[in-house]
Design brief:
By secondary structure, the chain is an all-alpha fold. It has seven helices and no strands. The longest helix is centred in the middle third of the chain and has 53 residues. The N and C termini lie far apart (101 Å).
Length: 198
Amino acid sequence: MHLPLPRVSTPAWLGAVLATLLIAGCAEPPQKELDQAQAAIEVAVSAGAERFAADGLTSARTALMQARDAVNQRDYKLALSHALDSREKAQTAARAAADARTAVRQQVEAALAGVTATLERARAVLDTGRPGLTRAALRRARAAEAKLTEAVQEARAAVEAQDYGKAQALLTGLRKDVDALLADVQGEAPAQSSRRAR
């Protein structure tokens, strides 16, 4: 004789299964989530987070270290929580780094365009000549223009290599020197500008 089985509603049955799976899921290290967190950190590093989102990257690394410590203590639920936190922080750092890198690239490209345009103006004055510009002054100006042209090419190469830190450093000095050259060849006195060509 078979006794009737108690009826269990579908939602209650699903809830019991999910709870069982959740408990079982915490019975071993969350290796997949740890790997995902590590991969997200590597993506953030490649996106430039070490320079542009250092705090977020540090937080992601700290959370991953805490996850691994929790695994060593066999607290897999805590390990899972830290691993997920690490992955999220790394992804946020990667986005922040990408945004900051784009902004810096735009600033550097604008600065390079400005320096190049000013140098072209100075070169045009040198090519057409200016009344009162002596031969000695012309030779000095052409030597300065040649050095500045090399420096601009170096800055352009840094931009093309996506080395925006180097490009920024070069362009900061170039801006003053190119302005000074233009003022010299135009017969103007540059305000607070260095007359030393790089």
